[in-house]
Amino acid sequence: MWAVNVTTGAAAQTLPPHDGLLFSLGVAASPDGTRVYQLDSVAVRVVDTATDTVITSIDLGAYGSPLRSLAVSPDGSRLYVGTEGQVGRLIVIDTATNEILSIHSRARSADQIGTVKETV
Length: 120
Description:
This protein is an all-beta fold. The chain has one domain: Thrombin, subunit H (Beta Barrel). It has strands at 2-4, 11-13, 26-29, 35-39, 43-48, 53-59, 67-72, 78-83, 88-94, 99-106. The strands form 3 sheets. A 4-stranded antiparallel β-sheet has the order 3-4-5-6, with no helix packed on it. It has a 4-stranded antiparallel β-sheet with strand order 7-8-9-10, with no helix packed on it. The chain has a two-stranded antiparallel sheet with strand order 1-2. β4 (35-39) and β5 form a beta hairpin. The termini are far apart.
């Protein structure tokens, strides 16, 4: 994972890929900027942006592999992870506890996930 100073354009690698993997499949940031979620094929790493340290790794390999996409809800309370395979899944994670709240199955891969702030 790389951090980029948007003022100077300077970049520095802050964390190597998870467990020797060559690359990340996706990255999403919490709305307040305190957490970054790094996706690889079987897990999500939760990174504290103030210290550039991994808080935890959420293993999702049992729910379908590879993991394909992720997004954070506009209020930062949920993390959504999509899987690929015969039965694609959408995994909903509580960002306060890093626990799985629900798993939704569908007949195809969940390659693209996005969130929208709802207004009434």
